[in-house]
Amino acid sequence: MPAATHDYYQTLGVRRDASQEEIRKAYRRLARKYHPDVNPGDKSAEEMFKRIQEAYDVLSDPKKRQMYDQYGFYSESGFPGGGQARSGPGMDFGGFDFGDFFSRAGTGRSAGGGFNFGEIFEQFFGRSRAQPQPEKGTDLEYALNIDFWQAIRGTQITLSITRQDVCTTCGGAGSSGGQAAVCPQCHGTGSVTQVAGVMRFTLTCPRCGGSGRLRNACNTCHGEGRQLRNETVEVRIPPGVSTGTRLRVPGKGNAGTQGAPPGDLYITVRVEPHPFFERQGDDIHIRVPITVTEAGLGAKIEVPTIDGRALLKIPPGTQSGQKFRMREKGVFNSRKNTRGDQIVEVYVQPPKVRDERTKELLRELAQLNPEDPRASIWSQV
């Protein structure tokens, strides 16, 4: 991991005391916005996407985040030269009082009274400075829109994704007998800058040894060991998914470094609404009209369900707005291995008066039922 040249919290747009969930949400939102698939050919978006990945890789790991919060940077390689704090070529401490800094930090004092940077890194990782260690690949986030019936019944989706894969030429080693290439960690400068509070360290690049170039670098990946590759992935969408469901495809994230395992692919589902069926959790809600005679005398009517037509019994005297529950006619929940219900709300549709005979029947009905349906409201106002 190269030294932090920008504030990881600002990159993700979160506060320094943000929770892991807030960091994850910010990362998913920005990764979708700046992903190369969404911004083809946009170099600035691609660079921003890399910065977002780098920031999330550090802040999502508690140990890396702890080190970043305490010292202002994260680096696997530690400090050069055995770890003893001193002034010298390539290390500008600007008269900083290490005693005050590390006494407040509570770490780093050597037995001779100096400050041993090696101990600092041992505190975080249980080991002293070494060559860059293999790192697990970062996860990828994709958003997927599916229609109502795909969510209800389940489906198989073919996704086209762009991910960092192991270089096919060098097998991830970064070298294969090719010519020297610009070091991807220091970008050819031979040094990296690390900031810890008011301290600024200018250190020899641990990857290229200060030369700014990698010898025998792979001609394909230029020493990175990984390369962007388009890939198609088959994703099974189980029945009953809903908006916000997050599916995991193991091993389809970015490749790890130096043989470390790849990250995972996470797919967040969004389900398009249906014009008639309204889904609420595992239940399906519909509204169905009934006639005046069906409401007054009762009837058995056919209603739509997600499985097809079904009979619903309407009891005599049914009121407009009354709801009926049809057991296990809702959405199947694969986690609970149960089905929701279908809720049917009926509303009484008045008859269309087209002739004198209809009017006569309605007058007779009014004479037989002279009750005022609004009489009870006057006692409440």
The main sheet comes to: 4 strands, mixed
> What portion of the residues fall into strands of 2 or more residues?
25-35%
Helix content: 10-25%
Rg calculated over all Cα atoms: 33 Å
Output the keywords:
single chain, 381 residues, alpha+beta, four-stranded mixed β-sheet, three-stranded mixed β-sheet, 9 helices, 17 strands, elongated
Describe the SSE topology.
Blueprint: H1 8-12, H2 20-34, H3 43-59, H4 62-71, H5 98-105, H6 117-125, E1 140-146, H7 148-153, E2 155-166, E3 181-182, E4 191-196, E5 199-204, E6 213-214, E7 226-237, E8 246-249, E9 265-271, E10 278-280, E11 283-291, H8 292-297, E12 299-305, E13 308-314, E14 323-326, E15 332-333, E16 338-339, E17 342-349, H9 356-368
Parallel strand pairs: 1-9, 11-17
Antiparallel strand pairs: 2-7, 3-6, 4-5, 8-9, 10-11, 12-13, 14-17, 15-16
Description:
This protein is of the alpha+beta class and 381 residues long. The protein is built from nine helices and 17 strands. Strands 10-11-17-14 form a four-stranded mixed β-sheet. Helix 2 (20-34) runs antiparallel to helix 3 (43-59).
Give a brief rundown of this model.
The protein is α+β, with helices and mostly antiparallel strands and 381 residues long. The protein has 9 helices and 17 strands.
